[in-house]
Amino acid sequence: MEPGPEIRGSASGRGGWHTHAMANAGSAPEAADPATADPVTAGPDPAARVDAWLNGAWTLAALAAAAEGRPLSREHGRLLFAAGCAEPDGDGWRLLPAYRTLLTGPSGPSAFPRRVARQLHQAADAAAGRDGHEEESDAALLAEGAASGERMGAFLDLLVERVPGFGDLLEESGLRFLDVGTGVGAIAAAVLDRVPGASAVGLDVQSRALRLAERHLAERGLGDRVELRLQDVADLSERDAYDLAWFPLAALAPDAVERALPRVREALRPGARLLTATVLRDDPAGDVREAVVRWRMSRSRITPWGPEEAARNLAAAGYRDVRCVRTPERTLTLVTARAP
Ligand SMILES: C[S@@+](CC[C@H](N)C(=O)[O-])C[C@H]1O[C@@H](n2cnc3c(N)ncnc32)[C@H](O)[C@@H]1O
Q1: Is the pTM of this model over 0.85?
Q2: Residue 293 in contact with residue 9, Cβ under 8 Å?
Q3: Is the CB of 206 inside a 6 Å radius of any atom of ligand 1?
Q4: What's the pLDDT at 256?
Q5: Are 138 and 102 in contact (CB under 8 A)?
Q6: Mean pLDDT on 244-253
Q7: 145 lines ligand 1 (CB under 6 A)
């Protein structure tokens, strides 16, 4: 399930490595030299650039290890100070307020170290030539689900603003929602919270995810409004059954997407909407963030479509009225389309 709209191209989740932190991440605080430590400005010396990248990874680890308010040891604090993330505090060090805020984040203080640790694990697997599909803990799945549910709430508001007729759809009594790759059910829950008379079907290929979804939805009092099914979306065989479908390109393999798109179209009522999202751009040349995300996606067998490619493929699969909607998250674009 990694990466998805949930994945961030950067460790901060806010669109890019913090250049000041990187610039000062020299091999020892007293040796830090911004001119040689920043991979961007390190010049053509490959060894200096590699050194700077490695120091960046360690700086990130130090930042993650400082989340959840753990006290900073002398050397840990010195590294974060040298990286521009901490300041002296009596005999010790403390994180700068901006970093305390970043590490706390909307999903709580354990989310940042978890995300960083997962990406560093994945990077270590890639470096060692391992496939490395590690299982995520229940807590991690629930936290990711909560974050994606929150985002879906914000997406719905944006779509009501930007897409003619979307607001009317959410007013429909008895709206039927299809949540593809439901995970812990948080996206279904966000839609049902927003549309009081709605009901949903959540599909997932992992029974473990569905067990978590069952518990999560019951805790939110939504258990009787969501039918959970252990089913690959590529095997969907309903017709004219849904008014809105969430189709997470970022969680689905290319072959599943190819088989599923016509089936979801058939499962939508005429004029009903499909909604998907992409964290990719259409013109990635030379952009390291984009290249990292695409490599991670290909390693995880995830469909790597930018907005225009998604729009083209939806049109080719028989969808109409395809629209791309930029979101305030710089790197995320929503794509909507209607069944004919
Ligand atoms: C990123 S996770 C879901 C996050 C979700 N929004 C939540 O609230 O937890 C994506 C899910 O898609 C499921 N999935 C992947 N391929 C699928 C397929 N072909 N059909 C149905 N579900 C699939 C995965 O098992 C995984 O649980």
Answers
A1: no
A2: yes
A3: yes
A4: 97
A5: no
A6: 96
A7: yes
pLDDT digits (tens, 9 = 90+) for 156-188: 999 999 999 999 999 988 999 999 999 999 999
> Within a 10 A sphere around the Cβ of 250, how many other Cβ atoms?
25
189: which 2 tokens?
């829950």
Digit-coded pLDDT (tens) for 33-86? 544 455 555 567 999 999 999 999 999 999 999 998 888 999 999 999 999 999
Give the distance (Å) from ligand 1 centre to CA of residue 235.
14
| CA dihedral for 131, 137, 142, 143, sign (positive or negative) | negative
Is the predicted pLDDT of residue 293 greater than 70, yes or no?
Answer: yes
The CB of 232 under 6 Å from ligand 1? The reply is yes
Q: Which residues of 268-283 are buried (b: 16+ CB within 10 A; e: fewer)?
A: beeebbbbbbbbbbbe
Q: Which CATH number fits domain 140-338: 2.40.440.10, 2.60.120.10, 3.40.50.150, 3.10.100.10?
A: 3.40.50.150
Angle (CA) 43 289 306, round 5°: 140
Whether the bond into 3 is cis, omega within 30 of 0: yes
Domain ranges of the chain: 19-127, 140-338
Measured CA distances, 42 to 23, 34, 48 (Å): 9, 8, 6
